Amino acid sequence: MACNCGSVSEKKYAKRWDAGTGSVADCKITSNGPFKDQTMGAICKDSNLDTLDIEQLCRLKGTLDYWKSWSWIKASGSAQSEVAKFREAVCERIEKTKPSTPKELCEELLTTDSDKQREKENCDNTTHRWSWNACACNKRTTPNIIDNEDDKTAIQGCMDQSAENYVEGATIPEQCEYEVKIPLLNEYIFCNDAGCGVGEATTKNTVSRGENIILVRPTGGLSPYDYIKDIKDAIYEVVKEYKNQLYPIRGIGFYSEDKNNYLHDLAQALTIMLLRNKSQLEDYDNFPYDYVSIYGGAIGIPFGTVKLTINDAWEDNIKNVVTAAKIFNAKNNFTKLLQIASNNNLGFDLDFLENTFDKDVDWLNNNIKYNGYIVSNDGRIRLIEHKEGLGMVLNEHRKPRGLVNILK
Prior knowledge:
- The chain is of the alpha+beta class.
- The chain has 3 domains: about 15-95, no CATH class; about 180-330, no CATH class; about 335-405, no CATH class.
- Helices cover about 35% and strands about 15% of the residues.
- Helix 3 runs antiparallel to helix 5 and helix 8 crosses helix 9 (about 260-275).
- The longest helix has 21 residues, at about 75-95.
């Protein structure tokens, strides 16, 4: 099923899951709004879906699409089936609810209105200075009309019918422009100060989760997708050389099982923003952002922030604009991540640490001791409840010995 929301937002609702149920239907929505404290099973009943508007339906679709990436759902065939079942029900309502596009309305009109039919036929039979667009005959603004030596009219324009700026009847080729969709796992907010937040997000400096549509003019004889891949691969070579300054909490941040996917995602986000600002780069030799914060899921805080090093002498090759990407996490963000990890019984990924940092738990505790949390031998994160006297002994995280063992 196509299930296309078009320009309607697919922003996701946050969830709460009781690990004892193992059921997608019992997942509750925690975000403020019409579904707060309702389970997905209750929301997706036929009688309830019929009452929702297109924006609410599309947000539910975005929520379910995101849930598919969770480790406990990927590990359960029944959970995957539940997500697919709910998504199919939501998509059926979206297709029934979403308004017709101008193109669809025009096509319907052309089947019933004889005057409109004749208008289109007359437009199609005129010179190439005119074209049928938006259900009307419009004078072209893109072709450049050139008289050749034989006093015949030549038309300059894109000659690829799949391009956005295709000019019918063009005889002199011009660079074509293509619409390309680039999917992202996370949301990215670009700015000029470290730790820029959601409150500073605008349509100009934000790259959203899901599909992002951009217009590109490929060079070097590459197809639109090869052109973008060529840029993205070069940027990934820069991104993967990041400095290790994020902590590996399972399921939160870049150091999860999908770490490399996150780094590829960051490279794609940088590619999108570079292409969006390509005209500014060409005109002023300037990329306007020095930092980008990465947000994922519904936790409301960044996984991390990336400090970008911009090449002032990029020499008209967009792949050379970003020369370094240093990923880090501000102390207040990290404290919030520890709180989330503690509340959800998450822990540090010690297997990954073995290849990156000193695996010793003491090393971890020395690095987080001022945040009010402590790490046990299995990597679990716990809130320090007792901070003085005998409480400090009882909170000892290493294997207890002697008096400490007796007391515990």
